[in-house]
């Protein structure tokens, strides 16, 4: 693809690095931005820069946050006795969009995958176990919901967590398999995901 301007070429190259964006789409976006009022383009650039430099991760659940602790963990309206364990931040957003869950979350940052060299120590598992132990002194955690993707890696992680949590006397449940095996939470429709949360079942390690 030939460009009349090196500046346009550089912009297209950077935009096309985004997932799902090819060179042609990147060019259309770049030309669209070029036609916009300068203030609008500057506002977009500033928003992206601030997101990248100022975003934080909640010290409790590891969700994205504007402060040291996220709004969900700080909310007194959420049930702190129920924790939903998810793989990443996109899963939190997916479950929140169902409006069916009023507990709190714990973001693992991935799943156990020996093939990719990801073991339990690379995930936020220790902080989950510590969180359960610390909560016993104030607001005991009654239930942990394992809302991980229905993949081999997700099931391996769920099995590992269930054994660790049941050793501490915590009730462990798993979202109902309305989600297709091999499917990812972020691509599941809200009705199916909401039903899965509401009809969760006890997780068996036997």
Structural account:
A zinc finger (C4-type) spans 58-73. Keywords: DNA damage, DNA recombination, DNA repair, Metal-binding, Zinc, Zinc-finger. May play a role in DNA repair. It seems to be involved in an RecBC-independent recombinational process of DNA repair. It may act with RecF and RecO. It comes from Algoriphagus locisalis. This protein is of the alpha/beta class. The protein has helices spanning 6-15, 23-35, 38-54, 71-74, 89-96, 125-135, 152-166, 190-198; strands at residues 56-57, 64-65, 79-86, 103-107, 143-146, 171-174, 201-202. The strands form 2 sheets. It has a 5-stranded mixed sheet with strand order 4-3-5-6-7. β5 (143-146), α7 (152-166) and β6 form a beta-alpha-beta unit. It is elongated. The N and C termini lie far apart (58 Å).
For this entry, give a set of tags.
alpha/beta, Helicase, Ruva Protein, domain 3, five-stranded mixed sheet, elongated, DNA binding, 206 residues, Dna Topoisomerase Vi A Subunit, Chain: A, domain 2, zinc, DNA recombination
